[in-house]
Design a protein that fits this description.
Layout (H helix, E strand, L loop, with lengths): L11 E6 L5 E3 L9 E6 L6 E3 L9 E6 L6 E3 L9 E6 L5 E3 L9 E6 L6 E3 L9 E6 L6 E3 L9 E6 L5 E4 L8 E5 L4 E2 L26
Parallel strand pairs: 1-3, 2-4, 3-5, 4-6, 5-7, 6-8, 7-9, 8-10, 9-11, 10-12, 11-13, 12-14, 13-15, 14-16
């Protein structure tokens, strides 16, 4: 699916259901009532690249219980009502070089056992709550080389049993707090930059805007 205009639809711009080995590239999926691009139920080995998913009422790109080896790269997911990119129970996904700015809650959101994912070199600035959030049993993820500046809450936040994650070489400036972690299971590789040392605090409970679907 290449170079399609999929905007202002009642539900989704592009919807993949249990689909394997597709390339979704260069599409415009703006101002849809729910999601710009939606991958549902064991959608595996798909590449979602260089799409514009702005101004959707809920989420720019949403992976719900999708399978392994999906890649989200160089997408523009700005000004969505809830989240720029959202993974729900989705594993082994690469989220690389995306723009996730000025969203209603979070730039990038991993929820409910979304594990073994790589979140690298994304720009998650000026979101209303948090730049990158991992919430509820998200384990063994790598969060590296992201820019998370100017978010009203946290630059990067881990909550509720998100264990064995690695955070390194991120820039988190001008947020309410730079990096916030609930619990001890965080590895910050050395050498740490000055931005990594900013406001590493402990958080508890449910973050604003978090949901289960």
């Amino acid at each position: 699916m290449t170079d399609n205009e999929c905007s202002s639809n009642s539900f989704y711009g592009i919807y993949l259901y249990s689909s394997w080995s597709n390339t979704v590239q260069g599409n415009t999926c703006d101002y849809n009532t729910h999601y710009g691009v939606y991958l549902f139920s064991a959608s595996i080995n798909n590449t979602i690249q260089a799409n514009t998913c702005d101004g959707n009422l809920e989420v720019g790109i949403f992976l719900y219980s999708s399978g392994t080896e999906n890649q989200l790269k160089s997408n523009d997911c700005d000004n969505n009502g809830h989240y720029g990119i959202y993974l729900y129970s989705s594993n082994f996904t690469k989220i690389v070089e995306n723009l996730c700015r000025v969203n209603g809650y979070y730039g990038i959101y991993l929820y409910n056992e979304s594990s073994n994912n790589s979140v690298q070199a994304n720009t998650c600035n000026d979101n209303s709550v948090t730049g990158v959030l991992l919430y509820l049993d998200c384990r063994n993820n790598t969060i590296e080389a992201n820019t998370c500046n100017g978010n009203s809450g946290k630059g990067i936040q881990l909550l509720q049993a998100c264990d064995n994650n690695t955070i390194g070489d991120n820039t988190c400036l001008g947020n309410g707090a730079g990096i916030s972690v609930d619990g001890p299971a965080l590895e910050i590789p050395l050498p740490a930059t000055s931005s990594q040392r900013l406001a590493i605090t402990t958080g508890h409970g449910s973050p604003p805007g978090a949901r289960s679907s």
